[in-house]
């Protein structure tokens, strides 16, 4: 093969390849453009695919619109303290996509990333192979839906779906519905079905909850003033352990409100403890419903108490509000439910996702498959992460904090490029 032929067959090279075309990857592209660094974004599906395909019809943000602060693209609508619905979120993202105008290759699932002996990255995808000096992984941390093995033993006429597949109550067959999990998705989907008039059975896990409004303001507004959203993970009492926490359940639906599972129980929803197994035609639940409800309320009241302390310390004039007291307590705990006798015809699994970085050949992962990093910077030169929950702050995986993380990563890339003798330091404008 001649030198010309070899050059023609060599993979295209970029200074930086970004894996993932969601809000995190596009935010990185925004700052790379500002720094005048050539790059390519590889997206498995289409940009911001998850927002378009893995949200139910009545979905709305649980954080107020003013927290939508993608780089160069703050929320500028007429309702900063409202909560955008699904179509409004997509419109917001479409405007961001047009503004960034990122160099994206869609339909390019990355199958392998490895680093050669010279420090260059080999990136293989379903739409071609590439090389890069640096790689930013922006594919998020929610990849593989969790469905327990017991699901395989259920009757085939039971419709089963994961939370990312749920759209609305009418898409499910007539009959009662079992929702498994009470995190943000589980609580909101249970509410959606309940409001649609469906009989809902909810397996309640250990998710905490928080108030929507407290002492005259959205709780998010209070926490922002208290600088909670600026706290780095290294200063959090749980340190990196906070990344394993389930999100607090609350909703932005209909202008925002609390989600109180006890109220749902008074209205006919049947609550159980954590789902443990299925055998002999019966679902088996742990006898921990009361404890899980009490723990969620303790978190609710503890957050409110911290706001009380902030108000008192700064002498803020805010209307008083009483401590939450339970509206309902389970008289007893049912630990078994006959699936057929209950009339349950469908199950929605809302117990989360696991990460899948099997395509990334790098010694950066812990025993649970999560990357070890400090603010997205790994111990492997030139390899970075962005968009993970609590990567740096509470907002790292959200519209509110991803810009700060993306800029930090691009600044770090620029610093590395400037210090590398074989790269042009002028590449970062």
Can you lay out the helices and strands and say which pair or pack?
Layout lengths: L2 H7 L2 E8 L3 H12 L4 E5 L5 H5 L15 E2 L2 E2 L11 H15 L3 E3 L3 E6 L5 E5 L2 E10 L6 E2 L13 E4 L13 E5 L3 H12 L4 E4 L9 E2 L2 E2 H7 L35 H6 L3 E3 L2 E5 L2 E4 L3 H26 L21 E3 L5 E6 L3 E2 L28 E3 L16 H18 L10
Parallel strand pairs: 1-2, 1-8, 2-5, 8-21, 10-19, 11-12, 11-19, 12-15
Antiparallel strand pairs: 3-4, 6-7, 7-8, 9-20, 13-14, 16-17, 17-18
Helix pairs in contact: 2-9
What do you see in this structure?
The chain is α/β, with parallel strands linked by helices. The two termini are 39 Å apart. The relative contact order is 0.17. Keywords: Oxidoreductase. It comes from Caballeronia fortuita. It holds the Pfam family Pyr_redox_3. This is FAD dependent oxidoreductase.
Largest sheet report: 7 strands, mixed
Give the mean pLDDT: 93
Terminal Cα span: 39 Å
CATH architecture of the largest domain: 3-Layer(bba) Sandwich
The CATH class label of the largest domain is: Alpha Beta
SSE pattern: HEHEHEEHEEEEEEEHEEEHHEEEHEEEEH
How much β-strand is present in the residues?
Answer: 15-25%
The Rg value, from CA coordinates, equals 24 Å
Helix content: 25-40%
Q: Please tally the β strands and state the result.
A: 21
Q: What is the CATH third-level topology name of the largest domain?
A: FAD/NAD(P)-binding domain
Q: Looking at this structure, what is the CATH superfamily of the largest domain? A: FAD/NAD(P)-binding domain
Tally of domains: 2
Count every helix, treating DSSP H or I runs of 4 or more residues as helices: 9
Shape: globular
The structure class reads alpha/beta
């Amino acid at each position: 093969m001649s030198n010309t032929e070899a050059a023609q067959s060599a993979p295209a090279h970029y200074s930086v390849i970004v894996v993932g075309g969601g809000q995190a990857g596009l935010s990185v592209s925004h700052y790379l453009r500002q720094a005048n660094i050539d790059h390519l974004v590889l997206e498995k599906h289409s940009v911001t695919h998850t927002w378009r395909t893995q949200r139910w019809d009545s979905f709305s943000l649980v954080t107020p619109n003013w927290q939508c602060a993608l780089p160069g693209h703050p929320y500028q609508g007429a309702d900063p303290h409202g909560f955008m619905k699904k179509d409004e979120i997509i419109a917001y993202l479409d405007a961001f996509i047009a503004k960034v105008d990122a160099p994206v290759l869609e339909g390019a699932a990355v199958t392998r990333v490895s680093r050669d002996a010279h420090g260059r990255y080999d990136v293989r995808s379903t739409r071609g192979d590439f090389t890069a000096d640096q790689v930013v992984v922006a594919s998020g941390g929610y990849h593989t839906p969790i469905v327990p093995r017991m699901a395989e033993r259920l009757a085939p006429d039971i419709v089963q779906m994961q939370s990312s597949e749920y759209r609305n109550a009418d898409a499910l067959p007539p009959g009662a519905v079992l929702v498994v999990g009470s995190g943000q998705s589980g609580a909101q989907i249970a509410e959606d079905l309940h409001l649609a008039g469906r009989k809902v059975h909810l397996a309640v896990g250990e998710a905490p909850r928080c108030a929507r409004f407290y002492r005259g303001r959205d709780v998010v507004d209070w926490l922002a003033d208290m600088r909670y959203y600026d706290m780095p993970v290294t200063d959090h009492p749980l340190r990196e352990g906070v990344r394993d926490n389930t999100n607090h359940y609350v909703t932005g639906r209909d202008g925002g409100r609390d989600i109180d599972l006890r109220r749902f129980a008074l209205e006919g929803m049947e609550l159980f403890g954590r789902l443990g197994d299925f055998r002999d035609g019966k679902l088996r639940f742990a006898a921990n419903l009361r404890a899980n409800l009490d723990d969620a309320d303790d978190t609710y009241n503890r957050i409110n108490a911290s706001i009380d302390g902030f108000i008192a310390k700064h002498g803020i004039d805010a209307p008083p509000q009483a401590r939450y007291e339970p509206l309902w307590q389970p008289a007893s705990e049912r630990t078994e439910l006959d699936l057929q006798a209950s009339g349950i015809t469908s199950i929605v699994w809302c117990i989360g996702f696991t990460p899948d970085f099997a395509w990334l050949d790098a010694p950066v992962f812990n025993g649970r498959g999560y990357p070890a990093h400090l603010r997205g910077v790994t111990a492997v030169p030139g390899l970075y992460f962005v968009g993970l929950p609590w990567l740096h702050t509470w907002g790292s995986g959200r519209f509110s904090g991803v810009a700060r993380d993306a800029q930090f990563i691009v600044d770090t890339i620029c610093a590395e490029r400037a210090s590398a003798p074989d790269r042009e330091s002028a590449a970062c404008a």
